[in-house]
């Protein structure tokens, strides 16, 4: 018996040694690659129409998409509004610029706001055409509108690679019908399913993204995504917004990204991030973010902006994310390209210090999107 015990003990030691070198879990998150290296350039078409010029790091004028590609961008995000007063960014404008995006060999994400103006955590206005519609009709509206935009893109040879069903929908979309009240996700789930089904009916390979700005709170992220999962909502990619001045530390971002990736078993991306390169203001419109160092360790300089973006990418990659998108890197202050679609000529640019191009159109020479 003593011999048998020694044999069993030797076998256990051998097994332990094997387990120490042979992983029994999937490839660790730290081995992730950022395959979606994105830029939301939704304001760019208007800037170009107004005569904006863009310059690469050598000071040579070039197409801004080519400049961004040279810095590592491989994916473009375009928002679509139903019927904005200015025309930017309605379906026709998005269709036109999608041709340019695809001609550059870039991936295309369509960001459905389902509104005539901005949709974000603090506001989710119905488009005017749907204002009197109840939840049953709005389901049909979402389906038909999503399918129409997607199919129109497909028909011209620019099928979207991915779409967002709603933008930063922390507590729902198309308020008040699609707002989550008293933890009831029923109405929101109906709208998300309508958008998902329309997208897949248009093109089964287009990935459906559900996007919140919950990178600041693990509890909020779980509340939302647990809520829609419990209602049977399907989606392909989980997306979060992260701005350090609003959403906290990179350590917390890592925790939330890791959790939603493992908890829901889906790829995750940072759909929006940005950082200022200056505390100054280029026009009469107050900047959204001011200060010489809005986040500790990152001064509002070219170097600070680039370092912050690199840190966000590194954190996302380390947490197993597959993509990071910079929000509106090309939106430097151009008269007539204001933030308010209902008064685009009479308002200024709140983002001019957050773009990766300065006030004369020169790219931050230090900024890079990296796999």
From TrEMBL:
Enzyme Commission no: 3.2.1.89
InterPro entries assigned: GH (IPR017853), Glyco_hydro_53 (IPR011683)
Endpoints of the signal sequence: 1-31
Leading EC class: hydrolase
Top-rank taxon, per record: Bacteria
A Pfam family that the UniProt record links to this protein: Glyco_hydro_53
SUPFAM superfamilies per the UniProt record, alphabetical: (Trans)glycosidases (SSF51445)
Catalytic activity annotation: The enzyme specifically hydrolyzes (1->4)-beta-D-galactosidic linkages in type I arabinogalactans
Keywords: Glycosidase, Hydrolase, Signal
Similarity field: Belongs to the glycosyl hydrolase 53 family.
PANTHER family cross-referenced by the UniProt entry: ARABINOGALACTAN ENDO-BETA-1,4-GALACTANASE A (PTHR34983)
Protein name: Arabinogalactan endo-beta-1,4-galactanase
Organism from which the protein derives: Nonomuraea helvata
């Amino acid at each position: 018996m003593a011999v048998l015990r020694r044999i069993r003990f030797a076998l256990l030691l051998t097994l332990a040694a094997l387990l120490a070198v042979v992983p029994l879990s999937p490839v660790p998150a730290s081995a992730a690659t950022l395959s979606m290296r994105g830029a939301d350039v939704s304001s760019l078409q208007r800037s170009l129409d107004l005569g904006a010029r863009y310059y690469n790091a050598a000071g040579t004028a070039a197409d801004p998409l080519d400049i961004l590609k040279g810095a590592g961008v491989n994916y473009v995000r375009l928002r679509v509004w139903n019927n904005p007063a200015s025309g930017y960014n309605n379906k026709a404008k998005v269709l036109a610029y999608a041709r340019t995006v695809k001609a550059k060999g870039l991936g295309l994400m369509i960001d459905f706001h389902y509104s005539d103006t901005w949709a974000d955590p603090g506001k989710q206005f119905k488009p005017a055409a749907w204002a009197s519609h109840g939840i049953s009709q709005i389901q049909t509206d979402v389906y038909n509108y999503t399918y129409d935009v997607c199919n129109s893109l497909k028909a011209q040879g620019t099928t979207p690679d991915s779409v967002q069903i709603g933008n930063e929908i922390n507590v729902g979309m198309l308020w008040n019908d699609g707002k989550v009240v008293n933890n009831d996700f029923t109405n929101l789930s109906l709208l998300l399913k309508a958008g998902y089904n329309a997208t897949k009916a248009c093109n089964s390979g287009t990935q459906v993204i559900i996007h919140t700005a919950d990178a600041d709170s693990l509890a909020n992220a779980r509340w939302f995504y647990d809520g829609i999962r419990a209602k049977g909502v399907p989606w392909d990619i989980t997306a979060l917004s992260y701005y350090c001045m609003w959403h906290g530390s990179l350590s917390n971002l890592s925790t939330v990204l890791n959790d939603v990736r493992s908890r829901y078993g889906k790829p995750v991306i940072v759909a929006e991030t940005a950082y200022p390169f200056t505390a100054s203001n280029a026009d009469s419109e107050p900047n959204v973010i001011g200060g010489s160092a809005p986040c500790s360790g990152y001064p509002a300089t070219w170097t600070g902006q680039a370092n912050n973006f690199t840190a966000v990418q590194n954190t996302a990659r380390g947490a197993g994310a597959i993509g990071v998108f910079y929000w509106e890197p090309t939106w430097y202050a151009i008269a007539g390209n204001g933030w308010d679609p209902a008064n685009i000529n009479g308002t200024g640019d709140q983002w001019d210090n957050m773009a990766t191009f300065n006030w004369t159109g020169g790219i931050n020479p230090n900024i890079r999107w990296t796999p």
